[in-house]
Structures are given as C-alpha cells and as structure tokens.
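G., before I forget:
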Amino acid sequence: EAQVTQNPRYLITVTGKKLTVTCSQNMNHEYMSWYRQDPGLGLRQIYYSMNVEVTDKGDVPEGYKVSRKEKRNFPLILESPSPNQTSLYFCASSPVGGDFWSPLHFGNGTRLTVT
Amino acid sequence: AQTVTQSQPEMSVQEAETVTLSCTYDTSENNYYLFWYKQPPSRQMILVIRQEAYKQQNATENRFSVNFQKAAKSFSLKISDSQLGDTAMYFCAFRNYGGSQGNLIFGKGTKLSVKP
C-alpha cells in the first residue's frame, strides 16, 4: 500500500530535550515536505526537499533541522524543543516535474506537546 | 511570494443544502495548480478536488465542484447536497508548476459544520 508513515503519532516532551520525528514514504517520490498546523494559521511549511541531499527552508524553519540521506526518509529534528513548537506536524510527499499535478500524499500527523 | 486567503474561518450548513467556500490567491505565475483538501476530525488530509490553471473548465468530483476565475484569482468550492460526513476543516492550496517553486501553499482553512 502506497503511504507516508510518520512516527510517533503523539509525543510529549520537555523543553530542551532533543527529539526526532520520522517520516518514510514507499512511493519513490522525489519531493518531501514538513508542515506544522496551528489553529487559525493553517498549514505552514517548515522544510522541504526536492531530492536526496537537497533541502531548503520553508516559511517557519527556525528551531528545526532536516536531512535527506535516502530518498524514502525525511526526518524532522528538534534539537532543543520549546513550548512554541507545540503543534500538529505533517509530513508529505509527491513526484516532481510534470507530475506536480499529483496531489501531496500526507502522513497521519504527529501531535507534539513541549512542556 | 504566493499567498492563499480563505476569508471564512467558520461556516455552517443544513444537511442536504448547498454551501460555497471561498478562496483567493495571489501569484504572478501563469502555470499553477489549485487544490482543496479536507481534514475531518481524524486529522487525515484528504484531497477533495484539483484544478489546473490553464484549463478553463471548472473541475467537478461528484457533489464537489469549483468556480475557478483565473483573472480574479478566485477558486471557490461548492458542496452540493451536504452530508454530515462533510463536516471538516477545508484548506485551499496553491502549487506552482515545477522547479523549486513547486511547494504547496495553504490557506488558513474554513471550518465547515453540517447540521442535521
């Protein structure tokens, strides 16, 4: 089954404790992206990647890191989480080029709470 | 930079009636795609409908249709015969054609409640 898998689905942590949210897709998609969703703000892009070893900042990259060492994986790293990073996070993927018509495939989301 | 605006934070409709959600966007590009996504309480993101900018004909998917006005940069979603299962957040989204500008940009969403 074609899917984007995010883990964990729920995470509660404390300020300053490094964490990683994993994202993996099995569709051989070049494009992957991370979004955070906050009430009244919609989905805002954190980082995106057009292919392996190619990453770029979105609209709200501060406090986050990503890496794209393999095509299928795109982990989101919070080196020193703070309470303002409490949010719902989504990973998404799609083909690129002429297939931009294709919709994004989304993971099921990760609800992160930083206390 | 491209922006997407959804001016209705919340809407409600009676079951079986028709409702229209508005969306406007700002871009200087000529080739792009527009999408409506639905997010039910399960928080899953589900594609509802999509439109290519170069196509004048409005997209339709069963009870869902769009009114795409390219010159006005407007992309509204019409839901006919509303059902209780249509209760969800609806996000309008914009995507440039190709290159590094191919990011999906979302509006802030409209919370739709369908009442029995």
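Chain B has a mean pLDDT of 92. The CA atoms of residues 67 and 102 of chain B lie 23 Å apart.

More on Monday.
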